[in-house]
Amino acid sequence: MTQITLVLPFALPPPELAADLIRAMQAPALAALLARSTCTTLAHDDTLRALPHEAWLAKQLGLSPQGHSAFACAAMRGMLLDPGQASWFIVNPAHIDIARSHLSISDIRHLHIEDGHARALFDTARPLFDEVGKTLVYGDASTWFMRADGWETLQTASPDAAVGLNLTDWLPTGASAVDFRKLQNEVQMLWFEHPANVERESRGLAAINSFWPWGLSGPGVTMPPTPIFATSSVPAWLAAMATSPSVALPNPFTGGGGADSMLVCGDLSAAAIAADWADWLVHMARFEKTLFAPALAALRQGHAGQLKLVVSNRHSHKEFITSKWAQHAFWRSPSLDRLLP
Fold it and tell me: What is the SS3 string spanning the chain?
């Protein structure tokens, strides 16, 4: 039985706004899918220092049974880089905002780092990493990798888990945290008034004034053979792990390919992180046309045997499973109430 899995980070409204957002939504197809499905509220361990959908993906992709964000080596392989027998971190060039009372990290999606600027900053910083035995490897403008030798116990958080919050609670911790901060400070001094940052600021863009390590994984962490896996509007590290580019994905809603498929759509993330709920509603309306209505039609027409919908917010996530036969339960009126806490 062919199964379509749609993973939609931040499609679950925050509890305090859920009722108002649901009233504003016009999503009859989603309402039918939710009302005529089995619903499971999934447990999330906040000590993982990752968002619920990140932990879910780590488990589903076979990277960490506990849900740790062990994405680095899989992302490297997706970018045609060889992790060898070492452990690695993902490193994101970042902008740290310095307020009067706290620090915060900006949403990496909004940094718009050009390859030329990223490579210039990378080349400037790499000798410092080499000096402390931490090889730095370039993936793309927003995604680098740092060899973790000796820092495997460094406890880190995903940038999306930390964004917009008091950074004091999210900084790396552990026995090697002091050594990390020393390296971070030295890199920050090199990047201060770096020509790439001067040019960025002249264009009204934020300076790249720090870097954020996370996603530690060891050499034995590999993705097992997976169903068709595609992504849309997600960070580069996750897009690199896809087994099929979204543009080449057989249309799961018409039965194309005849195999199970999973699609991760990150279109809601930037709006939710910025608390721009008007934009969030715009994206949900687009999902109604491009995802929910076609998925409902596919079930009713027998092109798909089962649909799994995984929705999440910053602190929790839910899983809905429905089928052609479940959609025949016409006594269950379409409703979005299952998105309520």
Answer: CCEEEEEECCCCCCCCCHHHHHHHCCCHHHHHHHHCCEEEEECCCHHHCCCHHHHHHHHHCCCCCCCCCCCHHHHHHHCCCCCCCCCEEEEEEECEEECCCCEEECCHHHCCCCHHHHHHHHHHHHHHHHHCCCCEEEEECCEEEEECCCCCCCECCCHHHHCCCCHHHCCCECCCHHHHHHHHHHHHHHHCCCHHHHHHHHCCCCCCCEEEEEEEECCCCCCCCCCEEEEECCCHHHHCCCCCCHHHCCCHHHCCCCCCEEEEECCCHHHHHCCCHHHHHHHHHHHHHHHHHHHHHHHHHCCCCEEEEEEECCCCEEEEEEECCHHHCCCCCCCCHHHCC
